[in-house]
Design brief:
mainly alpha; transmembrane
Amino acid sequence: MLGRAPQDTPAGLGTYLLLSLTFLFAAFPLYWMFVIATSDDEALAKLPPAVVPGDRFLANLEEVFSLQDVYFAASLVNSVIVSTVVTASVLFFCSLAGFAFAKLRFRGSNALMLLVVLTLTVPNQLGIVALYIVMGRLGWNGTLLAVIAPGLVTAFGVFYMRQFIVNSVPDELVESARVDGATTMRIYRSIALPAIRPALAVLGLLTFVATWNDFQWPLITLSGTDYPTSMVAVSDLASGNYVIYRRVLAGAFIATVPLLVMLFIGGRQIVRGIMEGAVKS
């Protein structure tokens, strides 16, 4: 006799309470950052801390964008350019490479895939000096090309797309398309891409967030330039003998807004991609 299929158990009050508390703990730093960004200097020293937004948000933003030695507006534009280009490149090249490793048979594929995975174990800090020398030989240090080029393809992206394509694109479907005369690029475009859209959404959002938040390499390669990326500009706001934290947090809040927008747009796709990956694995 066949057993009953498992049914979803409705969440209880304790579950909702735990989730609500977790959300409050996670969201409070962002909210408090906004509170200080809208207040004057005295709000930071209040005990208990201020929890009600003030009325100086626009004035604080005007100070941030008018600073002559930070160029905050240009840094936001640079971050948008870098993050968009890197994300588009990662989605294209990593999905191509993942498709090749997952569905094409060629000599040395397993060894190459192992080499790609092994690169994930190497800390990025170990390659900073060599990367700086290479970019200097190319004449790219001090330009956005030096920030964009190292992130055009990522080992994590290749591995992630390979694992997703293995489970999402049946071998029989690929072979039948070859019998019908479809080229490799046609199979990739017409069969693989529609099946991996959730994974592309997850990888795209993770890549955009990681690129936007990158601080170490842009700080090194763009050192001495007037137009850094947003994270470097926020760091410049916090430099000096006297730090005006309402400026720093106002700039940090504005630099966080694009990430919140991306999360709002792609949040459902992320959940879908994670759930599909969990069910198929």
